[in-house]
Amino acid sequence: MSDHDRLLILLAERSARRGHFTLASGRQSTLYIDARLTTMSPDGLALIGPLALTVLRQASWNVSAIGGLTLGADPMSYAISYASASTEQPLRAFTVRKEAKAHGTGKLIEGPFHEGDRVAVIEDVITTGGSALRAVDAIQAAGGIVAGVLALVDREEGGREAILAAGLPVIALALASDIIAHLPISAES
Q1: Which of 37, 74, 126, 173 is the Cys-Cys partner for 159 at CB 3.0 to 4.6 Å?
Q2: Residues with Cβ < 8 Å from 181, sequence gap 6 or more?
Q3: What are the structural domains of the chain?
């Protein structure tokens, strides 16, 4: 079984639920994907880091740093950065806050992000694309160059199209339809 297949199974078993939910976007859905149940687990991190690093390198985005809007992007960014540590081009991970700190340096972007960095925006789940685009805006305002958006899951609800319309390529490691296909029978009831 491939790492990609193992990731789909983990997402289906741990992160996907059927029911009636209000998403962060405000939309109603009968499918909820709490990616953190996978991205914050040891085996999820061990799969996501190398898999996402491989996908980033295949995309030839040539980034030096990765990060996105906290909290969803954080564990993925750290896993990818860790997976890159022993390569010729290690990637620095950073976090985009939802709002600038009111104390200390007042930063909106935390970690080893530098003006002029070419970065990939990381997102756990894309629904409308709003969180990823919010991170893109913050990174660009801080002088970063966004090469594209790498998501764990694309819910296939228009978010990819919104990001593409903003002129950025999008790569998703999993589609909601692929996760649904791996849902246990009891989770579909």
Answers
A1: 126
A2: 8
A3: 3-188 (3.40.50.2020)
CA angle centred on 146, ends 145 and 151, rounded to 5°: 160
Write down the residue that tokens 């909820």 correspond to: 32
| Three-state DSSP string of the chain | CCHHHHHHHHHHHHHEEEEEEECCCCCEEEEEECCHHHHCCHHHHHHHHHHHHHHHHHHCCCCCEEEEECCCHHHHHHHHHHHHCCCCCCCEEEEECCCCCCCCCCCCEECCCCCCCEEEEEEEEECCCHHHHHHHHHHHHCCCEEEEEEEEEECCCCHHHHHHHCCCCEEEEEEHHHHHHCCCHHHHC
Residue-wise pLDDT tens digits, 74-130: 999 999 999 999 999 999 999 999 987 666 566 899 999 999 999 999 999 999 999
